[in-house]
Each structure stands twice: as structure tokens, then as C-alpha cells.
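note to self — DONT lose this again. spent like an hour looking for the file last time. sequence + predicted structure for the chain T wanted, 335 res
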Amino acid sequence: MSLQTSLTHAIDRRATFLAQAEASQTDCFRIYHGTVEGENGLNIDRYGNAWLIQTFHQTLTETQLEELTQVLTKLTALPVIYNDRSKRNSRVENALQSDHHEFACSEQVIKENGIQFTSKLRHEGQDPLLFLDMRVGREFVREHSEHKTVLNLFSYTCGIGTAAAMGGATKVTNVDFSSFALAAGKKNAELNDVTEVCEFIQSDAFPALRQLAGLKVGGRRGQKLPKYPKLPATQFDLVFLDPPRFAKSPFGTVDLINDYQGLFKPAMLATKSGGTIVCCNNVAKVERDTWLKSLIRCVEKQGRRVTHQQWIHCHEDFPSFDGNHPLKMVALSID
């Protein structure tokens, strides 16, 4: 099957979804999820006023790009930006025509369920400033944030925090190490007039979390600890934990396969009794139920208990082979 035909079938399967997206003021979504829909390593998304094609395994030929562009512009006549990330470190290295390059490097505003977010299709980082598969997480948080305090860990551009503020949270604390990401998060708050309830803390997650949980800040053996913001012990009504797959810092190692508990324990301790912690794990080979059992055991070891659990599943624009999406999200209510 040609890419053109494969994309056409994917669009046909999304007919109901696309109508719902338009009705809900959503103009950012995935139109082709290649891993499941026919071409591994090829993703096609709409980001507001543009289509974004990204390849992670193999560069498109000029003919393939022209064919995909024809299908996309027939659906909605928008610029088509191609980011080839199939080379080293998934970095974007292909050149664009001057008008498309200017557009891709300029700030755009996209909408998701009426919430405005800033976006750039090309910038000093690699991703367009909003992860679209996390839409269901933002929806959950918005729905469950009214009159609550919210902690958003590994916040990136604070999409979760912005959704919480739009849902009526009394205070949202966003924590991320990247000043660039937090700057975009501040723009998101400004776009939606929620700056008064949003706080932005640039910090390594380990010292921030351990201080909030009332624990001593430590580090990896032999590592000199850099300076970090001092925070008081604080508990929140809703905590959102979405760490990267793997990362090292002088304060510790983020490892979603072997040591999720290293982050989960302090995040859980920073969750109020009767509160909720939403946990995310995007490693495909981590088995869902085994991971959940390990979280529950960690809660119980601290003398607390899980009173309710709810799996949060990705929307249909991110299909999976068997209903088990690599991105796993579970909300745990804790006493």
C-alpha cells in the first residue's frame, strides 16, 4: 500500500474524531500514527495553521512528500512542514523553502478544547512545544482541578498546569529544569489569562520533590550538588508525574524501567490525604499491571492506601495495536 493510500485510510477512520475536534475547538491532533497505521517512524500531525510531517526512521523521497502534501491540503489547505528526524539524535536537519522555514520558526497559537497554547514547529529544542498524545491527561486534570492545588512535575511547557488553571485550580506549581520550556509555559498562562494562579519553578525534579515531600535532599555518590531553589514542605490536592524515560543529574537518576519508585515515593508523599496522583510511563516494554502493582506497594509501604484507581487512555488519533498504548497513565486516589 502506498503512503498516499495509507494516509487516506487513516483520515477516513478519523471522520467522527475530526468532526468532534472541530466542535470542541481543537486544531492540534494526530492525523497519521505510522507505527500502527502502516509506516513505522512516520507521524503526521496538525498543529493549528499547519500540517507537520515527521520521520524518525527513513527520509521521505520528494515524490512521497508531494503525495502526502496533496492528501493533506485536500483535507485542509494549510502549509505542510516536513521535519526529517531520521538522522542522529532525532535532530531536525533538513532544509525548508524560505517561506516555510520562516513559518516553522515563528510562534503560533494552537487550540485544544478551547485552551490556547504556544507552538513552534522548529526551535532550539526538537518537539513543537505540546505533546498531542497527552491531550487526554490535560482533559483529566482540567476536569478534576476545581478549587484544588496542583503540582505539575517535569512540566515541560506546562500544558498540564495550564489545563489545571483553566479547570479552576486555586494554585498550580509547575516544576521543570528547562528555562526555555518554562518560558513557553508562562506564555501559555498569559494566553489564557491564568497567570495569577500559576507558579513556575526552575529546578531539578529530585531536590524539588524531596523538599516538598519533607525529605532530605541527597545526590548520587561522589557527585557535588549544585545550587537549587529552596522550597518548604507542601502537599497538594492533585499531583501530576510525567518523567522522561531516562535522565541523570547530580541529584539522582530518572529510570522509568528500573526505578519509577525513586520519583513516585516523594511525589506520593507530596499528595494530600484524599488527594490524587496521576502517574505516567511512556516505556512500551513496561507491563501495565505489573507497574501499577509496584505503585500500590509503594503507597502501602508508607502506611497509606489507594482508595480508587482509574486508567486514562489516549484518544483515537493515537491508536495502538492491542489497546495497550505505550503511554500508560493511571490516576490513584490516596488516603
